[in-house]
Amino acid sequence: MDLKNLEQNFKETKNFKKIFNHNDASKKEFQRLEFIGDRVLALILATEVYKKFSKFNEGKLANIFSYLTSSIILAKIAKKIKLKNYIKKKKFNNISDKVLSDFIEAILGSLYLDSGIKKVTSVIIDLWEVEIIENENL
Asked: Using an 8 Å Cβ cutoff, are 117 and 9 in contact?
């Protein structure tokens, strides 16, 4: 999946595009979307890890979950879908891994509000699938 495919998951593309606005009101809304996106991501990944690793205890599940929801992995996902290139085109400066992870959370929050839990679950599972498989031995 790339960023264009991700955008196509939105019922209303304006809900995707508004994430990349610069004014003060947009910054407040961005932070709100980031907040909900963080919670949606946590719920979906916790559920996926719980189902996928049925033999693992709570501590092992927590290690995998923490890693999958870390800014390291969120930034890795953002780079994989070429989010940084899109952000640069929108004239944002200082695009760190933290900024990339914030944008991923805001996108997921906006997608959840726009298209619901089934759609955002599908997108998250698709984007995180390789990371889940590769990190089961944490």
From this structure: no
Separation CA 69–CA 64 (nearest Å):
9
What pLDDT is stored for residue 138 in this prediction?
67
Over residues 21-46, the mean pLDDT reads 93
Q: Is 64 helix (H, G, I), strand (E, B) or coil?
A: helix
What angle in degrees, to the nearest 10, is found between the helix axes of 97-115 and 24-52?
80
List residues with catalytic annotation.
38, 105
Report residue 58 CA to chain centroid gap: 23
Q: What pTM does this model have? A: 0.92
Tell me the DSSP string of 112-126. Answer: HHHH-HHHHHHHHHH
Residue type, 102: D
